[in-house]
Every structure is written in structure tokens, then in C-alpha cells.
Task: inverse folding
């Protein structure tokens, strides 16, 4: 995979992804940006959340598990000094539904985290990646 970013003005970069989508990245005005797009690390975390989320939905669909809603929340802890990398990333899978089979939810999340999610696998070893499953009954 190859991705190219072009600096347009100030701290703003525009990229066309291999899938044909345009993405704008920018910094806050405090760091010389114009706040015209998300920050790089925000997109980085979105990539992890999206990757594992799609895995889990795909696996649960194959298992014929129906849920009403799934939210993924990532909580992080960063290094205090530069480089301010992520030391810890906790992924919360928040399911809504009635009588959801916890064993299948756990299996789907575990498969994503340990086998399928390339984004999570990329940061493991550098950051401690943990996860938890929360079920909210309707």
C-alpha cells in the first residue's frame, strides 16, 4: 500500500487514499494549523477502532448474532516526553441488545484482537493494548 500526502497551506495536508477518498489532516491553531481536519493521531486511533469494529461485526454476522448497537471507545495513555507515543490503548466494545451471548461476543473480540486486526497488531509491542466488553441491555 502506498499513500501520499500533499502540504496545501500551513500545517494542512490533503491525501487521496488508495480507495479513492480524500482526507484532510490539520493541526490546531495553537500549533500553526487552521483546524480544517482531524489530527494525525485521531485518525490513527480511528483506524484501530474501525479495523477491530469491522472484524467484530463480520465475525458476529457469521455467528448469526444480532445486536442493536455497537460503539467502540478507545482510551489512551501517552508518553509524557517526546516522542509522545501511545503507551496504553484500551478498546471498549459497548454492545446494546437483548440476551446477547457473551461467549460469542468474547470470541469475536478475541479473534479480532489476536488474529485479524492489522491495526491493533501493528501497535502491539510498542503499546499495551487491552480491551473490555460492555453489554447494555435494552
Result:
Amino acid at each position: 500500500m502506498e499513500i501520499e500526502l500533499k502540504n496545501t497551506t500551513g500545517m494542512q495536508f490533503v491525501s487521496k487514499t488508495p480507495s479513492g477518498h480524500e482526507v484532510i489532516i490539520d493541526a490546531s491553531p495553537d500549533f500553526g494549523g487552521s483546524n480544517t481536519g482531524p489530527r494525525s493521531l485521531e485518525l490513527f486511533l480511528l483506524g484501530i477502532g474501525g479495523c477491530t469494529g469491522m472484524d467484530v461485526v463480520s465475525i458476529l454476522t457469521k455467528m448469526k448474532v444480532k445486536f442493536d448497537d455497537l460503539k467502540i471507545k478507545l482510551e489512551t495513555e501517552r508518553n509524557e516526553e517526546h516522542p509522545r507515543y501511545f503507551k496504553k490503548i484500551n478498546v471498549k466494545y459497548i454492545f446494546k441488545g437483548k440476551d446477547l451471548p457473551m461467549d460469542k461476543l468474547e470470541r469475536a473480540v478475541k479473534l479480532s484482537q489476536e488474529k485479524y486486526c492489522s491495526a491493533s497488531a501493528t501497535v502491539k509491542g510498542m503499546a499495551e493494548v487491552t480491551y473490555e466488553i460492555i453489554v447494555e441491555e435494552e
Remarks:
- Helices lie at 40-62, 102-116, 118-123.
- The two ends are 42 Å apart (CA to CA).
- Residues 29 and 40 are 15 Å apart (CA to CA).
- The first strand starts at residue 5 and ends at 9.
